[in-house]
Amino acid sequence: MSKYFTKDKWYYCFRILSNPGDSFYEIRHREYGSVPIALLMVFIFAICYSMNRLYSSFIVNDVDPRAVNLFPEMLAIFAFVLLFAVGNWSITCLMNGEGRLKDIIIVTGYSLLPMILFYIPAILLSQVVSLNEKGFYSLLIIIGTAWTLILILVGIMTIHNYTLAKTLVTLALSIVAVLLMLFLFMLVTDLVAQVYQFFHSIYQELIFR
Amino acid sequence: MRIGKKITALLSLAAAFIVAAQTVVASADTTLPYDSYNYDYRENIVYTPAPYTPDRSVSGLTIKVGGFNNPQDIYTAADGRVYIADTNNNRIVVMNREMTKAIEVIDSFVTDDGSSGTFNKPYGVAVSNSNELYIADSQNRRIVHLSAPTTDENVNAPVENNRLYLGKISDPKSEILEDGFDFVPYKVSVDYADRVYVIAANMFQGIMVFEEGNFTGFFGTINVQITAWQKFWRKFSTKEQRSKQQLFIPTEFTGIDVDDDGFIYASNIDTEGIQAVRRLNPKGEDVIRKGENGNVGGDVVYRESFEKGDYNGPSQIIDVVVRDKGIYSLLDKKRGRIFTYDSEGNLLYIFGGLGTQVGTFSVPTAIECIDDNIMVLDSYRGEVIVFKETEYGNLINSAVGLRYDGDETQAVELWRKVLTLDENNELANSGIGKAYLSDGNNEEAMKYLKLGMNRRYYSIAFKRHRATVLKKYLAPALTIIIVLFVALYAFSIFVRERREAEERRREAAKSHV
Predict the structure, then answer these.
(1) Nearest to A131 among B450, B459, B466 (CB)
(2) Euclidean distance between CA atoms B456 and A93, whole angstroms
(3) How many beta-carbon contacts under 8 Å exist across A and B?
(4) A130 vs B459: CB contact, 8 Å cut-off?
(5) CA–CA dist B336, B380 (Å, integer)
(6) Which residue in chain A has the smallest CA separation from B466?
């Protein structure tokens, strides 16, 4: 277990913030990345996301507190990260990408770090801003999100050894793949439900006879 | 021992249940045939105490003039007389203020040339400030103008046809009207300057305005709104398809009323359910205020209209009445509900429903108010249903009235009473919050404004609260920080000095040895 959480691996988790290109290269080729740390990042991000919805002050926050629920939201974020990773992996496999599934998960998880780092100060800042100063809060959120998106772009580009254009194309195709997977999933669950219902009605016919 | 304990526990539980049941009965009025509700900030339905309760119903039989037949309009004049356009009986019935007896029945009049005139399906009726009577005589295609009443209210039997003929408006001529235009007036209204506003059949350009009997122009045209999606589809459809499609024509106005300042309130059926009433200034521009949720269209939440059933889709606002202090009420034909808004466009309360019990409607057609009562005309049953204000309704009306007059501090007392009846009332909470804000009690203001979901004023209160907190604690906090820094610095110097002294001593000892 400890091999996943060595000092080097923690260091690289933060190093991506300053030089993403080099760090992601070394994560891919010198095994400086760690999937458990990436999943931990997703976990922390999910908590920050729900906290932002719940604890940002009334002035900047229009979310109904009754609508915030940590566990479904966390489940959705994990599901999306994994779906994206699988989708991206299945596309890049066909398009000469060098990254492994493991690397894609690490890139996605690590890239969420700026969002975590900006959401927490944003929540604290929201406690002291008035409506005119709402822009500062929004600015923090926007910077965090933009940084994360840039990191994902650079990360995917580096681990697959792609050009920028090819990265953008694969990212768009990954989203299509995610939608396709969701569609298939729904199709399968629906069919299974129908089969189940068929046998269930036979069972009911028999016991009511 | 043990059993005794259990029995006492059971008994106390039963007692608690009985008490709870009693309070429930006390708070919910189970005798009303409809629900009273409102929408909160997040557009959830919140049930409220009834603002109005049905008082009685008045028909032609109760005032002994024979039953009304498909009456289409009701109007209360400034002198308190209540006019009903008894459409299919071709007459106008006038009642006293309390609607206990008929004072006048008008079904014919003597015109200028001495011949006798009658009505043919009079749809609308209106009374000017000088109590002169205007009747939209639809199938005779004219507006009949009759004089003020010549008899007082104290009559034993209804007086017939005591009004003098003052003129008529018919066959309007203008360049902007099409040739062969068929003038069929449905609703009519008069302002303080005796300008006549008419809603006519198939008149999509707006309300027709007449001054001294002459047509002067249209007023308050509703612009057609085509969505990008509809435009997109039209581009790809052939000419034949286009001719089969729904025409993009503006909706017609359904009801009209004039307030004391001469602003025209006109209702229309809005298929989007967003704006069903317009407040038109003398230039014909819409100056209505739409409140926080930008909606003055009746029900905010409803089932979509393509689903099965006639009870879904946006409200169909059929009439509007302007009440005191900028408050106005809309009547919904689809679900029989009455929506009341204040001058800022906030929904105050909603009540009413369709049905056959007393207090519900079959076909609600027109709405009016007199004193504290609201009256709804049901054309199918030929009845006027009178609603009287409850304590809850009265408190809200008075509080809104006080705020309209700029007397917010007096309104606070009333808002507090509203909160005892309906503790989540957002208007009451934000009203109290605003009063605290102007009193300078920012913390209380923040509490109430948050309950009232009034973000803008909450922010103001918060800013002031923040300033006082900073003023109070910033100087001591900074002082403490500076003192700490200085102390830390002094301490580090002291430690260094001591260490150096120690070293010097050690070296001195070494050199001695």
Answers:
(1) B459
(2) 53
(3) 18
(4) yes
(5) 13
(6) A128
The answer to whether B72 and B381 have CB atoms below 8 angstroms apart is no
User: How far apart are alpha carbons B92 and A121 in whole angstroms?
Assistant: 72
Residue B1 pLDDT:
44
CA distance A118 to B342: 43
Q: What is the DSSP string of chain A?
A: -GGGG-HHHHHHHHHHHH-HHHHHHHHHHS----HHHHHHHHHHHHHHHHHHHHHS-TTT----GGG--HHHHHHHHHHHHHHHHHHHHHHHHHTT----HHHHHHHHHHHTHHHHHHHHHHHHHHTT--GGGHHHHHHHHHHHHHHHHHHHHHHHHHHHT--HHHHHHHHHHHHHHHHHHHHHHHHHHHHHHHHHHHHHHHHHHHHH-
pLDDT per position as a tens digit, B335-379: 999 999 999 999 999 999 999 888 899 999 999 998 889 999 999
B45-388+397-406 CATH fold:
Neuraminidase (2.120.10)
Position B124 pLDDT exceeds 70: yes
Question: Which is more confidently placed, B8 or A208?
Answer: A208
**A-chain residue closest to B450, CA distance:** A58
**Given B42, B450, B460, which is nearest A58 (Cβ)?**
B450
DSSP state of B235: H
Contacts of A58 in chain B (CB under 8 A): 450, 455, 458
User: β-strand B133-137 against B108-110: which pairing, if any?
Assistant: unpaired
Ramachandran quadrant class, B268 (left: phi over 0; alpha: psi -120 to 50; beta: rest)? beta
Q: What is the ipTM of this complex?
A: 0.83
Over residues A45-72, mean pLDDT: 93
Q: What proportion of chain B, given as a percentage, has pLDDT over 70?
A: 93
Does the distance separating the beta carbons of A59 and B463 come in below 8 Å?
no
Residue A131 and residue B456: Cβ atoms within 8 Å? yes
What lies within 8 Å, CB to CB, of B344 at 6+ separation is B289, B291
Residue of B nearest to A130 (CA): B459
Query: Which of A56, A60, A131, A137 would you mutate first to test chain B, the one with the most B CBs within 10 A?
Result: A131
Residues 6+ apart with CB under 8 A from B426: B40, B41, B451, B452, B453, B454
Q: Where are the domains of chain A?
A: 2-174
**What CA–CA distance (Å, rounded) separates B402 from B408?**
6
The edge-to-edge listing of strands for the beta sheet with B133-137 is: B122-127, B133-137, B142-146, B165-170
- Cα(B433)–Cα(B425) distance, integer angstroms: 12
pLDDT at B10: 54
pLDDT in tens, B173-208: 888 887 778 889 999 999 888 899 999 988 888 899
Facing residue for A64 by CB, picked from B42, B455, B460: B42
Amino acid at B360: T
Do A58 and B458 lie within an 8 Å CB cutoff? Answer: yes
Cβ atoms within 10 Å of B390's Cβ, excluding its own: 19
Q: Which helix (H) or strand (E) element contains residue B377?
A: strand B373-378
Q: Give the model's confidence band at B154: pLDDT under 50 very low, under 70 low, under 90 confident, else very high.
A: confident
Predicted TM-score of the model (pTM): 0.82
Contact, B251 vs B271, CB < 8 A? yes
